Amino acid sequence: MYADLIDFDTTGKVSADIFHSEETYRRELSTVFARSWLFLAHESQLRAPGDFVTALMGEDPVIVSRQRDGGIRAVLNVCRHRGMRVCRQDSGNTKRFTCSFHGWTYDTAGELVKVPRETEGYHDRLDKKGWSLTPVTRVESYRGMVFGTWDPDAPALIDYLETARPALDSFIDTLGSDIELAGPMKWRIRGNWKMPAEGLGTDGYHAETTHASALQAIGGMAEPSRIFQYSSAAGHAAAMTDLGVTQRMHEKAGVGPSPHGTNDTVTVAHATVFPNFSFIGYSGPLRVWQPRGPEEMEVWGWVAVPAGLDAETRRQKLRGVTVSFSSSGVFECDDSENWSEIAAVGRGFVARSTPLNYQMGMGFDDPAGTDLPGFDVRTGHLFNDIGARGFYTRWAELMDGPELALTPSAPPPGANGRG
Ligand code: FES
Ligand code: FE
């Protein structure tokens, strides 16, 4: 039982093995990633019919595209002939995807429309309708953010996101509602995907130590008058604080001012939408921590910017974010070093068997800490592992639940329409 590997009732311990075990990782793919809503794209990337981006759902590659009827569909990016990756571009506009192995061709809805040598090889008896690309079971959007899930029984996206919406809405509203994404920038690092996912949800604690030199360079951490942390039974977690604090921090880092909100507007500082979608308020970095094995991940990073910025303002904003949060950003490099070292030292038999401490703030969670609605449990304190405890409680629930049921010959059912 994975629930036995965490204990937030008495000891506050988490098994170190969950960050290193191949068996745990395989199960995450068939439970956590196969049954959750996963971030795929932003609608601004898919404005015209035929616009597409490629994405990952766990380790499964998918193509997400705008259809002629205005809907958005997603299909598994794996050819039904021999399993080749069908689309090898990050994004573009097309009417057809042609597999580069033998030339099977699919339309943007995933229907198999052309097979080379169909008459000579298949004697015109190939049931092309039966060999479409596997559709992602459900695709829905929330305020331009496109998510997909393989689980036909998942709640509607709007309900799945219910306890993440205060953070997600704040992220979008602070940027001015109408946003578009720049990127993605992609890079691989050693480390388990759960570390940054829990970190962006809850771990304000690391900043003074991990980022000591970077903070010194920008004049230290700003003292918030208010900070709230949220935890949710759905696994989402966030830290909210005064916009003025976040703004001063990022202005010092060169991101530039925001025209939206006032200093005491409560806004998201950082958040994770369970399981692997994170963002940082005000400056606009978005991350998906793509799992690539128990001790490796691929980081996909975008920057959300207000739509319609003039080229120079946009360039300055992207540059400001890039120097702090990107593969070479000062803050992100600090963080990546921690995650990679944890992966390296945790391979030892004794290290993997030694539990880790998630006790911070246990028993001191204050449900009355803030008047903001939305999250199930909140605390008025920065130094609290409350978000991580919620994250791993949901994680264990899914890990101990059933794997997504699939039969190889029958793709998952579902409308695969636009929400
Ligand atoms: Fe795609 Fe053969 S693997 S056409
Ligand atoms: Fe950090």
Small molecules held by this entry: FE2/S2 (inorganic) cluster, fe (iii) ion
pLDDT averaged over residues: 89
- Estimate the strand proportion: 25-35%
CATH topology of the largest domain: Naphthalene 1,2-dioxygenase Alpha Subunit, Chain A, domain 1
Approximate shape: globular
Distance between the termini: 35 Å
Number of strands: 21
- Give the low-confidence spans: 411-419
The biggest sheet amounts to: 8 strands, antiparallel
Structural class: alpha+beta
- Look at the structure and name the CATH superfamily of the largest domain: Naphthalene 1,2-dioxygenase Alpha Subunit, Chain A, domain 1
In helices, the fraction of residues equals 25-40%
Number of domains: 2
Radius of gyration: 22 Å
InterPro entries: ARHD_Rieske_2Fe_2S, RHO_NdoB-like_C, Rieske_2Fe-2S, Rieske_2Fe-2S_sf, Ring_hydroxy_dOase_asu_C_dom, Rng_hydr_dOase-A
Family: Belongs to the bacterial ring-hydroxylating dioxygenase alpha subunit family.
GO molecular function: 2 iron, 2 sulfur cluster binding; dioxygenase activity; iron ion binding; monooxygenase activity; oxidoreductase activity, acting on paired donors, with incorporation or reduction of molecular oxygen
Keywords: 2Fe-2S, Aromatic hydrocarbons catabolism, Dioxygenase, Iron, Iron-sulfur, Metal-binding, NAD, Oxidoreductase
